[in-house]
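We emphasize that the prediction below concerns an isolated chain of 197 residues; any contacts that depend on oligomerization or on bound cofactors are therefore not represented. The input was used exactly as deposited, without trimming of termini.
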Amino acid sequence: MAPERIDKNFSVGSSEMSDVKRILCGGRGGQGIIVMGKMLGWAAMRNRYFITILPAYGAEVRGGEAYCSVVISSQPIAMPEFDKADYFITMNQISYDSFFRRLNTDGIIIFNSSMIKEKKIKNINQVGISATQIASDIGNIKISNLVMLGAFCKVTNIFKISDIINIMDDALGSSKKRYFELNKKALEQGWKIRNRR
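Result of the prediction step, given as a token string:
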């Protein structure tokens, strides 16, 4: 089972959300941050939602900070930018430290506990999953972002894991089809996160 760390008063999969979902993804270049945003976008479109994705990169070609702002709505989106997110998927300590203040009250942080030391944050639910370690155990550290995405689906109930699996080929491109089973396994391991009380 996937390792996890979840606030004791937070029930996985029980999130009630407004019509608009604002998601912030953050990490280091090369950790698949933009890919996560892209896959959320594909899944949203397949489910007939409106979607905006705004990627942002650091000045470095590789290894700098990378961020992606995603808005999902059943109505046309007037403003793709936002000050406060409902959900924050974070892969490394720098992004966690830099952006946890951008969460709405009762927002949810899903963090890579392999690389992040958790802070106590008032009125914020936090879910930790050892994504890097799980990906390494599966066989490829580069799929840690998909472990995180699987956990995000389980925690938020925005998408079923099958929604993500069904768009993988389109979102990742034909060159990645040979990695389908590996990517699917990473998503499934993230999905196995559960609540411990």
